[in-house]
Amino acid sequence: MSHAAASHALHCLDCGLHKLCFPPTFSNEALDSVAAIIGQPPVLPRQHVIYRSGDNADTIYAVRSGSAKTSMLLPDGRELVTGFYLPGEVMGLENLGQEHCLSTATTLEPTTVCALPMAEVSQLSRQLPELQGHLFQIMSTEIRADYQRMHLLAGTDADTRVAGFLVGLSARQTRRRLAGDNLRLPMARADLGSHLGLALETVSRALGRLADVGLITVSGKQIRILDAGGLQAIAAAQCA
Amino acid sequence: MSHAAASHALHCLDCGLHKLCFPPTFSNEALDSVAAIIGQPPVLPRQHVIYRSGDNADTIYAVRSGSAKTSMLLPDGRELVTGFYLPGEVMGLENLGQEHCLSTATTLEPTTVCALPMAEVSQLSRQLPELQGHLFQIMSTEIRADYQRMHLLAGTDADTRVAGFLVGLSARQTRRRLAGDNLRLPMARADLGSHLGLALETVSRALGRLADVGLITVSGKQIRILDAGGLQAIAAAQCA
DNA sequence: CGTAGCATTGATTCTCTTCAAGAGGTGTGG
DNA sequence: CCACACCTCTTGAAGAGAATCAATGCTACG
User: What is the pLDDT of residue B9?
Assistant: First the structure.
């Protein structure tokens, strides 16, 4: 563990992800202001609930390490997974300006999250035009991501949905400057199925089919993309 | 045609929808400021394109009368309808803070829309905390609506999706203080099918089944809800 | 009044879901 | 270190639901 990280109070400048959480053009003073309102992020164990549906909506969260899912419990008892969040991504935007949390956020593995109090974020964003613009941008990006996912959900067959999900996940890895062809799926097949509107068995079979035709290899949660172009062709999802 | 509407420049205070476009608590001065940046809204004919995918993203729109849809053209040639917009609703939030428009907006019938230039909206929102908060709120509401729709898309069978859509549309009618049990569907069955991830024939059949069991009556684009409770029970979508 | 687009209805095919069983992996306790 | 139990993932067979293809009926508009 880094000596700096262990002894100092957290500062966004020390975090390799600050160019993901905030615009790359963000000034150091702006980062200072933001860092000041972020509490010390704890390490949360696996399956830990970060916020629960119905909670007071007063905080948004940035994932620092690990991963999390957001989900809603449906009246019929099933669970709908609305999103997965990786390091550098901001979670809880659907609660900004709302009374109560809509969904429940749960860690998928040991995870650290930075808590950003909404009241202070919105006040700060009035002083920092860059921050305000950034908030609009990440919210509209979230809406765009939702449209992409609707495309997957409405888009027909299981292979397309799974391929589209993998392509999207790969793009998010490269955004973090990680290899885009070697993916780890931190979520269970059931979560993935709920997210994609498929039974977990169908997810498993779709992964198997994609592997059969040589586009990927599957080894449990570890996925390797062998033919990114072929995968995109099946996903047919590059319409952004 | 109203003599006032014809002779005066538009002002939001003259518009019965201003409490929908903006918070009910909005002061008259704030409305003055907002009205000042809104151009004179033209009456657009049916099937008119308001903005097109790829256009410069510089404006958001509020529907004043009529209705519109937003859609994306998929690589395979099909069209994905991402949303329908009724009077008092704001369209184009997914473009706020982005370079280009993601989707294409088209009127479904003769429609008037108020154009709000993004640059001036975001500048104004720095001076008016209420407006900033409102923008965050309508964007997060849009995200929440998307989650609801994903629930419908992932939620299994055709009847559930159609019932859920009708329940949601009914709620939006009552929000405008209109009767919630008498709906007019301004969009074609094909648009509705694309929106719900169903073939247009399946939409037709689902409407027929809902009518068969006495929950609604269907007469072309005119829908009457006979048993709102029963419809909600099928939709199972009251998890907001 | 006629035409063109839109909506409904029917028959068939195909995909996914469901139910069910087995395999692989992981963590715990002996 | 091994054995067992638990959980997750995979694989199989049967059934249900929607997509597709195709034809008819309706509506609106010129």
Answer: 56
Q: Are strands B79-85 and A59-65 parallel, antiparallel or unpaired?
A: unpaired
Residue in A135, A139, A147 nearest the CB of B82: A147
Query: Is the minimum distance from the CB of A80 to strand C below 7 Å?
Result: no
Q: Which residues of A touch B162 (CB under 8 A)?
A: none
Same domain, B48 and B115: yes
Judge if the beta carbon of A220 is closer than 7 A to nucleic acid strand C.
yes
Pair A34, A117 in one domain: yes
pTM for the structure as a whole: 0.88
Residues of chain A short of pLDDT 50, as ranges, are 1-8, 237-240
| A86 and A26 in a common domain | yes
For residues B108 and B159, state if they share a domain: no
Beta carbon of A155 within 7 Å of strand C?
no
Whether residue A122 is found in the same domain as residue A162? no
**CA distance linking residue A187 with residue A196, whole number of Å:** 13
Give CA–CA dist B228/B73, Å, rounded.
Answer: 34
Chain A residues whose beta carbon lies within 8 Å of the beta carbon of residue B154: 80, 153, 194-197
pLDDT of residue A238: 37
Rounded to whole angstroms, the distance from the CA of residue A218 to the C1' of nucleotide C20 is: 24
- For B63-72, b/e burial (b = at least 16 CB within 10 A) is bbbbbbbbbb
Q: What is the largest CA-CA distance in chain B?
A: 55
Q: Which domain holds residue A44?
A: 3-128
Provide the CATH number for the domain around residue A46: 2.60.120.10
- The residue of chain A with its CA nearest to that of B196 is A154
DSSP SS3 for A133: helix
Tell me: do B107 and B184 sit in the same domain. no
Question: Which residue, of B77, B95, B129, is where some domain finishes?
Answer: B129
Query: Is A5 exposed, middle or buried (CB count within 10 Å of its CB: 0-12, 13-18, 19+)?
Result: exposed
Mutation choice for A interface testing from B79, B143, B194, B202 by most A CBs within 10 A = B143
Whether residue A61 lies inside any domain: the answer is: yes
Q: Which residue is nearest to nucleotide C25 (CA to C1')?
A: A220
Which nucleotides in chain C lie less than 7 Å from some protein C-beta?
6-11, 15-20, 25-26
